[in-house]
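Please decode residue identities from the backbone states below.
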């Protein structure tokens, strides 16, 4: 009956509508009635029922990612301040926006007509940078050893090709940089007006010599180096060019506050403050051995994807071991979930890689596992913990988890 229906105008004054409905039923029953506690219980069940409101991680993730992007873009102002400097080093801890700034600086130089190289050590990072920047006139994106191969082939200079076997460390450390120098002697037209280097702490002194010779003006050509002294997991010497004007980045904008707080225990360097979203606290899950760790990892992935509604491609499982020696991914899967590595992202597959190989990359959610050896390496742990933007899960033995929870943060690293 119309008399007991609530319409839009009734919602504004529910008290009057309730009176109307109550009187309707009194008249229908032809007797006086008392609303009483039973009537109030009925009203409560109708208008204010109890229920559980699930707030999946995917919703938090989307909001935190929007804020992180906005905060990082604020750092672009530093490029405006340094726009007339030719030799610049920008130092900052993980999450301070170095990679995004390096990408933006390379774009700006290329758009101004400078033939620009954007380079780094890690090939997976170089491929990620190339995918982000797309096709830009005057801009070349490749990692250092790709640059060596490219120039050597262009100059038709013979260099030993170790394909099919594992090359000795000297091949990458000495032979390829030397071959690049030789190739550049006859490739003057292939040199660059400007070079932007990300993760510059990973370059050796010999590499800098070859890289600066790749500039059309080795002494005064534009050189921007973005680096983090705390992420020296490939080398432990101070090899950066000495003529750089160095400027610090002191605010971690990429990681949530709880992730920043946890990573601070493994940080060595200048001041680094938290500037990201509040976020959820990291999860710590104990696993007594490798078999238990594999089962827990599979369970975590099931929860994140099916209950927290995350896309598989937003998750990275990172091992403290090498990818080949890990017991996690068998036949290309962790449990029921297909995996890929950091160099070949796939939105339908979870990334599975080593902490070392994933250096310079990131994912909204990271699961760290097999950390028994890595826990004793502050540089490796710092890199691993800071790969997660918005949520972090750590699966490990009681020793690993105790070390993470008990290690005090350093003075320069603040929340």
């Amino acid at each position: 009956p119309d008399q007991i229906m609530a319409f839009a105008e009734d919602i504004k004054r529910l008290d009057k509508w309730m009176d109307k409905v109550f009187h309707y039923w009194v008249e229908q029953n032809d007797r006086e009635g008392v609303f009483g506690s039973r009537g109030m219980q009925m009203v409560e069940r109708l208008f204010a029922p109890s229920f559980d409101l699930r707030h999946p991680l995917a919703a938090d993730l989307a909001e935190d990612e929007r804020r992180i992007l906005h905060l990082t873009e604020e750092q672009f102002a530093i490029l405006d301040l340094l726009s007339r400097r030719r030799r610049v080093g920008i130092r900052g801890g993980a999450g301070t926006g170095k990679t995004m700034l390096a990408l933006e600086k390379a774009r700006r130089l290329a758009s101004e007509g400078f033939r620009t190289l954007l380079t780094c050590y890690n090939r997976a990072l170089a491929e990620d940078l190339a995918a982000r920047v797309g096709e830009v006139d005057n801009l070349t994106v490749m990692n250092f050893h790709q640059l060596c191969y490219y120039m050597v082939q262009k100059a038709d200079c013979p260099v030993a090709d170790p394909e099919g076997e594992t090359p000795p460390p000297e091949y990458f450390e000495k032979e390829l940089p030397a071959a690049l120098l030789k190739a550049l002697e006859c490739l003057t037209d292939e040199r660059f007006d400007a070079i932007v280097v990300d993760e510059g702490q990973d370059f050796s002194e010999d590499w800098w010599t070859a890289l600066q010779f790749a500039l059309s003006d080795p002494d005064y050509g534009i050189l921007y180096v973005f680096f983090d002294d705390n992420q020296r997991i490939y080398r432990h010497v101070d090899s950066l060019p000495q003529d750089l004007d160095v400027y610090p980045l002191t605010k971690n904008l990429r990681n949530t506050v709880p992730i920043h707080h946890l990573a601070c225990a493994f940080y060595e360097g200048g001041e680094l403050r938290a500037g990201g979203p509040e976020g959820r606290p990291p999860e710590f899950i104990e696993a007594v051995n490798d078999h238990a760790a594999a089962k827990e990892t599979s369970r975590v992935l099931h929860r994140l994807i099916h209950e927290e509604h995350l896309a598989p491609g937003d998750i990275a499982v990172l091992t403290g071991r090498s990818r080949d020696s890990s017991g996690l991914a068998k036949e290309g899967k962790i449990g029921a979930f297909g995996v890929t590595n950091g160099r070949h992202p796939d939105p339908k597959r979870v990334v599975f890689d080593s902490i070392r190989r994933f250096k310079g990359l990131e994912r909204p959610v990271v699961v760290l596992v097999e950390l028994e050896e890595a826990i004793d390496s502050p540089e490796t742990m710092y890199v691993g913990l800071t790969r997660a933007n918005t949520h972090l899960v750590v699966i490990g033995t009681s020793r690993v988890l105790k070390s993470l929870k008990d290690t005090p943060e350093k003075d320069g690293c603040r929340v």
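Observation: The mean pLDDT is 86.
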